[in-house]
Amino acid sequence: MRIVIAEDDALLREGLALLLRAEGLDVVATAGEPDGFLAAVDEHRPDVAIVDVRMPPTHTDEGVRAAVEARHRQPELAVLVLSAYVEQAFATELLAGGARRLGYLLKERVGRVEEFLGALHRVADGGTAIDPEVVAQLLTRSRPDAGLDRLSAREREVLALMAEGLGNTAIAGRLVVTDGAVHKHIRSIFAKLDLPPTDATDRRVSAVLRYLDAVRR
Predict the structure, then answer these.
(1) Of 12, 109, 189, 191, whose CB has the highest number of CB atoms within 10 Å?
(2) pLDDT band at 84 (very low <50, low <70, confident <90, very high)
(3) Same domain for 100 and 124?
(4) Where would I find the Response regulatory domain in this sequence (predicted)?
């Protein structure tokens, strides 16, 4: 896995590089500002970019905009966005697009090495990785939805973990239940949200987006 890191905090940038290299991953370049990051993407054609939301010169959304541009230049690039705290607009936009190979984590998650590496690999493998705290805040701010109101407490837990990008086995491990139980809960979620099987859409993504639709309104 070839990785480019875009982070203006030099200590965090170098710490991430050391951590990833110690895990046997290939950090091909690091950058402290958007132009350097985009130049590195053009030169090295990485598999994954780890990008801070807020970067110079204004420290607002330069990182996100650079990540979008990087994906435009290299559509198969996986992007893991890091943020110091939950920024609802960015998180909502990230999931609402339904795009694969994208992640959004709080920086504090980096210190939980196994979780961080798991999210990185999930994104690199084509999945989605959303920080549990991001999911929790989005769900808390969501408006009522008649379909969502029909879900049981356990089904809501399962849906929240689906929103983090976890597969059935990982959800079972987190909730300490069997894979079969998780599969049953997911079938029930799809039924209560009126999501029949179809080749046109991914029902897992559609279920998660029901939350985000309420957030955006």
Answers:
(1) 189
(2) confident
(3) yes
(4) 2-122
Closest alpha carbon to 178 in 150, 195, 158? 158
- Residues in CB range of 94: below 8 A, 6 or more apart: 81, 102, 104, 130
CA distance 128 to 108: 18
Range of the domain at 89: 2-136
- Residues 204, 148 within the same domain: yes
115, 136, 157: which is the final residue of a domain? 136
Residues 6+ apart with CB under 8 A from 119: 80, 103, 105, 109, 129, 165
* Residue scoring higher pLDDT (107 or 184): 184
Domains held by the chain: number: 2
Check whether residue 16 and residue 101 sit in a common domain. yes
Q: What is the pTM of this model?
A: 0.66
For 49-85, the DSSP string reads EEEESS-TTTTSSHHHHHHHHHHHHSTT-EEEEEESS
Together in a domain, 127 and 192: no
Tokens matching residue 106: 């709080």
| Whether residue 171 is found in the same domain as residue 90 | no
Q: Are 182 and 168 in contact (CB under 8 A)?
A: yes
